[in-house]
Amino acid sequence: MSQTNSPLPREVADAYVDDLIALDPVTGTFLGVRESSSRLPDFSPAGQEARAQLARDTLAKLDEAERAPGADSDIERRCARLLRERLTAQLAVHDADEGLREISNLTSPAHHVREVFTVTPTETDADWAAIAERLRAVPAALAGYRESLALGLERRLYGPPRPAATFVGQLTEWTDTDGSGRGWFEDFVSAGPEALRAELDAAARTANAALAELRDWMRDVYVPAVDGAPDTVGRERYARWSRYYNGTDLDLDEAYAYGWAEYHRILAEMRQEAEKILPGAATPWVALAHLDEHGKHIEGVDAVRDWLQGLMDQAIDALDGTHFELAEPVRKVESRVAPPGGAAAPYYTPPSEDFSRPGRTWLPTMGLTRFPVYDLVSTWYHEGVPGHHLQLAQWTYVAKDLSRYQATLGGVSANVEGWALYAERLMDELGFLTDAEQRLGYLDAQMLRAVRVIIDIGMHAELEIPADSPYRPGERWTPELAEEFFNAHSSRPGDYVASELTRYLSIPGQAIGYKLGERAWLLGRERARERHGDAFDLKAWHMAALSQGSLGLDDLVDELAQL
Fold first, then answer.
1. Is the pLDDT of residue 2 over 70?
2. Strands 333-337 and 359-363
3. Do 309 and 360 touch, CB atoms closer than 8 A?
4. 445 and 278 in contact (C-beta within 8 Å)?
């Protein structure tokens, strides 16, 4: 990269990463920066404003960088467009004071505070000493979060009531994991060295007490204050959040119609597969319920973790050299069991920048010990290989050829989730889902993503249910109708559906990115295939696509078509 007095966009982007890590050590830890291990961010209004000012300052520097010689190259242009779009979207959310009502069952400052410990280094006594210091920082971090929420109440900027009540339940579980009064942080430090036992236990108790204090305030002050406020955000706020998560200003009505079109297409395929499993089943979900009892399954938490590891290892061996060309660090991915007290959905955490911490998939067991296979196979193609892991680990591997920003913080949710859903469909296309149980499970997962588009847009924008819907045509969506519709079109248990709907209420616009992102990836591949004709090489296209870093949906299709 240029070292002149006029930095290029990639240099501006990477300087932004460095500066943000200084303000947000949680981000630093996820990137593998050990110096971040002892600190936590300032979640107060002042801390939020400091991060927003960094974004404004970076945009001003980007204005200058885009005029520098060499800034018009493809690699600089892509980085500049991504950085500008991402920071602009972030500032739109900040300037609307959304950070003053950040309540969620999946992603909130409190969730970040807990989750960061699961990826903090624990190899040495020095690592554990840093953990003790970070634990002692928990009260200040949570106090800053509470200060932001309190200011939101003062300004009548209310978070959604249902996620707020769910969050209180999560905080209760985190502070008392087994009913004995012992909290999650105390369980976490039990693996630490005996030489630091007293210090770690005391720090964990301090952190646990801070969680309990936040829980009590949420229960006694916040939840009563927001009682009666809407759980949905309305069209204007939804459009803002949709831009943030998808990197495009969506035509919400067109996207809603697309969700319904996919619903009808997938339902027809599900009926065909269900007939193979349980002939005459009234609905595909009757067949799936049959599989819950009589289908293939794994017994035991350790056994399912090992089985999922084997599934990812097999996928790597089958795909590497045929449909992908994987570097050795990318070939490593770990299967883990998620800590209790989180959301019900599986998730993935990417590797550290130096790959010292590999990419990991996480399975929330929700207290279960018996796991049907049908809904795990395509999910792990999504979370692991060839889904999230291949994309995010590849970004990490090629970061030196892009920019650090493009490979890490610049990730656009719809790009990432769209690739993972594309990965599920790819495995179906390649013949990995010929078993009727697994294919019906895959289609059920596809239906989940189509339903997300319908109900996420529908309930937040209060749209009408179309006339050709088999469910309540002509009525307008509410969260209650959305949950009923979701339950009728999912194999998942009621507590999972409830958790998912709470997620959609607290993270508006994120859930639609799976299906809309998949559509963008498929369209980009189709156009690249048309461009190359018989010379189209899917393996080469995959690796070029995964090596270009993040893009919003505005730019993704065009860039994919040129590969």
1. no
2. parallel
3. no
4. no
Task: Report pLDDT digits (tens) over 86-96.
Answer: 999 999 999 99
Q: For residues 512 and 143, what is the distance between their CA atoms, to the nearest angstrom?
A: 33
Q: What is the sign, positive or negative, of the torsion defined by CA atoms of 357, 184, 368, 512?
A: negative
C-alpha separations of 133 from 199, 213, 372 in Å: 9, 20, 42
Q: How far apart are CA 71 and CA 402, in angstroms?
A: 14
SS3 call for 223: helix
CB atoms within 10 A of CB 268: 10
Q: What is the DSSP string of 319-387?
A: HBTTTB---GGGG-EEEEEPPTTS-SS-EEEPPPTTSSS-EEEEE--TT--EEESTTTHHHHHHHTTTT
pLDDT per position as a tens digit, 118-153: 999 999 999 999 999 999 999 999 999 999 999 999
Sheet holding 347-349, edge to edge: 333-337, 359-363, 347-349
pLDDT value for 532: 97
**Structural contact between residues 546 and 275, judged by C-beta atoms closer than 8 angstroms:** no
Segment 257-270, tens digit of pLDDT: 999 999 999 999 99
pLDDT tens for each residue of 49-58: 999 999 999 9
Predicted TM-score (pTM) of this structure:
0.91
Using DSSP's 3-state secondary structure scheme, residue 276 falls into helix
Please write the tens of the pLDDT for every residue from 185-212. 999 999 999 999 999 999 999 999 999 9
Contact in structure between 408 and 395 (CB atoms under 8 Å) = yes
Distance (Å, whole) CA 420 – CA 378: 10
Beta bridge partners of 49: none
3-state secondary structure (DSSP) of residue 152:
helix
**Residue 181: its pLDDT value, please?**
81
CA quadruple 284, 519, 561, 533: dihedral sign: positive
Q: Which residues, other chains included, contact 338 with Cβ-Cβ below 8 Å and sequence gap of 6+? A: 346, 347, 362, 363, 364, 365
Whole-angstrom Cα Rg for the chain? 23
- Decide if 415 contacts 553 (C-beta within 8 A): yes
pLDDT band at 63 (very low <50, low <70, confident <90, very high): very high
At residue 400, the pLDDT reads: 86
What is the model's pLDDT at position 343?
67
How far is Cα 490 from Cα 312, in angstroms, rounded to an integer?
A: 25
Which residues have CB under 8 Å from 63's CB, separation 6+?
A: none
Inform me whether the pLDDT recorded for 4 exceeds 60.
no
CB 483 within 8 A of CB 548: no
Mean pLDDT lowest among 285-299, 342-356, 364-378, 413-427: 342-356
Confirm if 559 and 253 have CB atoms less than 8 A apart.
no
Geometric angle at alpha carbon 312, from 310 and 316, rounded to 5°:
115
- What average pLDDT does the segment 287-302 reach? 96
In DSSP notation, 469-520 reads -SSSTTPBP-HHHHHHHHHHT-SS-HHHHHHHHHHHHHSTTTTTHHHHHHHH
Strands 370-372 vs 297-299: parallel, antiparallel or unpaired: antiparallel
